[in-house]
Amino acid sequence: MGSGTWRRIVAWLRSGLGYNSGMKSRLVIDLSRLPEDGERFEGELPAEIFDLPPEDAQATGPLIYDLFVQRFGSELLLSGNLEVPFEFTCVRSLHPFIQTIRLDPAAISIEILREGEMDVTEALREEVLINFPHDPRCEEGDVEQECEIDSRYLAVDKLEEPEVETAPRDEASTGWNALDALKDLKDQL
Predict the structure, then answer these.
(1) Do residues 43 and 4 make contact, with C-beta atoms less than 8 angstroms apart?
(2) What's the alpha-carbon Rg for the chain, to the nearest Å?
(3) Helix, strand or coil for residue 186?
(4) pLDDT in tens, 36-75
């Protein structure tokens, strides 16, 4: 098992035993206290940071991060790993399934616009969102499922009558008729 899996197991056990870790709602880096050679940050951010519309994929657990943060001039580099489980809808079967977005390694560069505290939560959120699967399929979920199209959805494309005549083309006025007439006139000259 990976280290992320162990962290989730420990978090789950703690939550069941009434343990409240005091999860932060934002990840804020104090640039004035950041050592020159960098610092490690690890923890969890709540699923609510994603704030996606109800019809989109939804985070089903916290964003777990383990990052080394270092400053390079006017740039802040966050490197390490991120993971968060999401509930997606399969594009094939239309069934919901859970897939954990894992970014290992993750590397995020953020421009420092001013000194003091810097909230990097939005940068973490964006990094996860741009790594969503393009066409989520339940066979790629955390728990592999059979991913088949429901036959009810195939009936829409089937024609009951095998022979359907195509409607005749309207030969009346089209933009091409005028051009064809000019071509015929040119050929006669």
Answers:
(1) no
(2) 28
(3) helix
(4) 999 999 999 999 999 999 999 999 999 999 999 999 999 9
